[in-house]
Amino acid sequence: MRTSSMMRTVLFLLTAALITAPAGAAPAKKKKSSKPAAAASASSKETLQVMRLFDFETDLDGWRIPDWAFAKKDNAAVDVSLAEDQASNGKKSLKINCNFPPKMWSGAYVEIERESGNFMDFTGHQYLLVDIFLPPEAPKLKGEIILTVGENWAWTEERQPVMLTPGQWTTVKADITPDGTAWKVRLTSDLASDVRKLGVRVSSSSPEYKGPVYIDNIRLGSLKKK
Length: 226
Ligand SMILES: [Ca+2]
Description:
The protein is α+β, with helices and mostly antiparallel strands. It is 20% helix and 38% strand.
């Protein structure tokens, strides 16, 4: 009698252990796999913590070529669409079909405009980053971020557009701290907390190009000590 009751206790404990073990192991596994994704290393001491704003995986999220751009002679943007043939993050990106005429400056500009009460606040972050892809057959074009900030809707361009490399994704990274010198007009905290439009422009100083350029993975980044 005594032996069989002991056996039953052992069996019960074994069964309980088998039932609880997988349940206990699952969350631990999940924790482990999420770790490398968060640690996009910028240097050995600091990591760039990223907050993704636009990824163009399901739709254009309101990004468009503004009507006024079509009225300008130096406009090179033809139309925008969601593309599945290129992506720097996920599987899709925003594609601008462009027509850069020869021997003159022209630009393809796309933007998102926010409604009152829904303006963007970039304070608390150090960088604004955008990935731009040029097909291999494209000439050397430049890329830049353009913000429209504050109650005067001030058009705020980067001081130095970034040279894009045909055949690959190039990251345009702009300092958005009050001390930053990336902008033609200083981006104070008041302005960085009141971003009404976020725009991206690809421009040609004179080479002709008819074809697509791609934009993806628009994000805010902050360097954090490990
Ligand atoms: Ca994407």
